[in-house]
């Protein structure tokens, strides 16, 4: 079964002369359990696809189907039980005056869980932090530790699909691999499906099964990561991306 189906997706901002067509006719499907990458230069529309899925892009047309349910303009609460997002910047995504315990506890309460204490402890273990981090505040955490908290928060509702928007690009190089490996393990253990935006082909090569190369709002090629590794892109633009990343 496909966890995500995107059909003829157009997304735009503004109107008339100010209209920006950020995504044009995008189509791809992500089967359950797959990790799918979106790559392309800055401004090519990668993040806008994630925003359209989460309901953060107001103007779009086409089809977005998640876990068999075709989405309308509004996202219901149940949507966020299935789909969660991890953002690029863990400094911006955590409230500075909320402790880790509050961040996770409130998310769990919002989604109707009752055994909150036990779940907070389990989530902290699952992301490799452990209980000693439970009552810390964001300023007491490193960038990598913050991103682990953000990942724990995303896992709290037990989602099926994680949208990852450059989840390591704001981190020190030394911790990027740790976070990527954590994400690889979590997907394996939980059977998660990933849709991951990155401008870094080596990250996508490590994390993804397939990828779409985007340029000027359009998907120019969809390929297996094996083709990426073998430098076998068909489209000239994908070849350029590959060459630039060597
Ligand atoms: N809120 C907005 N209002 C107007 N234009 C926007 C808005 N958000 C994005 N855009 C435009 O849409 C296009 C696609 O942007 P998007 O952020 O999806 O690209 P991207 O491939 O994710 O790039 P990056 O890697 O830099 O994040 C760009 O031209 C951008 O300027």
UniProtKB/TrEMBL annotation:
Signal peptide: none
One record GO biological process: transmembrane transport
CDD domains in the record: ABC_NikE_OppD_transporters
Pfam families linked: ABC_tran
Regions that span the bilayer: none
Key word ATP-binding present: yes
Gene Ontology molecular functions: ATP binding; ATP hydrolysis activity
Keywords recorded for this protein, A-Z: ATP-binding, Nucleotide-binding, Transport
Keyword ATP-binding: yes
PANTHER family recorded: D,D-DIPEPTIDE TRANSPORT ATP-BINDING PROTEIN DDPF-RELATED, TRANSPORT ATP-BINDING PROTEIN
Family of the protein in this entry: Belongs to the ABC transporter superfamily.
Name of the molecule in the record: Peptide/nickel transport system ATP-binding protein
Species of provenance: Celeribacter neptunius
